[in-house]
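User: Can you predict the 3D structure for this chain?
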Amino acid sequence: MKLMLVRHGQTQWNHEKRVQGTSDIPLNTLGLTQVERLAESLRVLPIDTIVSSPLKRAIQTANAVNRFHRLPVIIDDNLMELDQGDFEGRSFSDLLASHADFLKQWARDPASVTMPNGESLANLQRRAWSAVESLPASAGTVLFVSHNFTIMTILCKINGINLNRIREAHVSPASVTFVDVEDGRGKVVSFNETSHLAGCAETVA
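Assistant: Here is the predicted structure, written as structure tokens:
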């Protein structure tokens, strides 16, 4: 089985550097351009199944890619982003001023914290990996459309690295990461591919 892990395109909250977890924010104008570029880059590749997070920004991305493949888009709640709880919608600069101690711990030991009234990375990884495990070995090539932290936890699992090193797995908006999966184990073939976004601004937010 082959996996394509796609992060949705940019939203206005991405642009404004606001915390964006389960809030249902659509793509902005740049994000729509990014996913069209992504779709063009994938149009000639064989895709057997498309699975998306239920959030608008992911579905918009999945639909853009699917314009060339005409498959049913399967919705899987396990591909939703990390629930950021009380931090949803707040700017990073605001959080630095009001929750400096929490953010220091998050920077030092992200696996040890749970977002206030939200979710931990460990819980996110469990549900995200369950979406991978639910795929049959005969699934062929599967496109997952999801979110930064969700994809990062999947990649940590595949690469066998602790969630404290999650920043090593950061993926850009409208990027695609290619993974081969065999006997329940994955191997990253191409990480955070963004060459299709050449000329687009803000591709690493």
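The chain has one domain: 2-197. The radius of gyration is 16 Å.
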